[in-house]
Amino acid sequence: MAVTARLAAKFNSYYADKPVLTTMVTNAVLGGIADTVAQTITALRTRIERRRGDDLISIEIHDLDKEKPPALGELGAGRGRPPTFDFERLTRFMAFGFFMAPIQFQWFKFLSRAFPLTKKSATVPALKRVAVDQLMFAPFGLVCFFTFMTVAEGGGRKTLVRKFQDVYVPTLKANFVLWPAVQILNFRVVPIQFQIPFVSSIGIAWTAYLSLTNSSEDEKL
């Protein structure tokens, strides 16, 4: 608790001095953590699949023709190896969080002005914020995400169109499952200076999901 309090105090001091830059750096760090989680999940999945492949080979080894032994390395062919850590991908996610932060910052300021919370009326304005945020900013944010990632990866127009056709709508549906509840808590309870960091912290799991979705789609293209 003491460490958390110190971090909060530090964040408040930096935020009071340079709110946009502080939010940008915080977003970049949390985006990097999220992609690291996603790449770790991918590596664990690959290891599990590799172990299953090894078990299958050990079971079927007796079926090999003893007169024609397999060539060196043939038994290992096709077995998945844990992918090396992709630092370029990590950089792309950190860059997206960094450059998206000013837009989020202005958007949250707009919501706080358009739907102010008062002691007499707090729940209804918070619900209005959530509705506007989810119906307007969430679709826009996903457009920014997939466009930025595709361009940063060197993909062209066809790749971008294919990605939107395959993963945009399912990702938006998943967004509507998670974020309304999170944003109600965020707008209703969390102080404005912590709202974007709170979203980014909860968003570690969400960004990891986006990272896995984006990378899995890239493998198909």
TrEMBL record:
It comes from the Eukaryota. It is a multi-pass membrane protein. Keywords: Membrane, Transmembrane, Transmembrane helix. Pfam families: Mpv17_PMP22. The keyword Membrane applies. Belongs to the peroxisomal membrane protein PXMP2/4 family. The keyword Membrane applies. Signal peptide: none annotated. It is found in: Membrane. This is Uncharacterized protein.
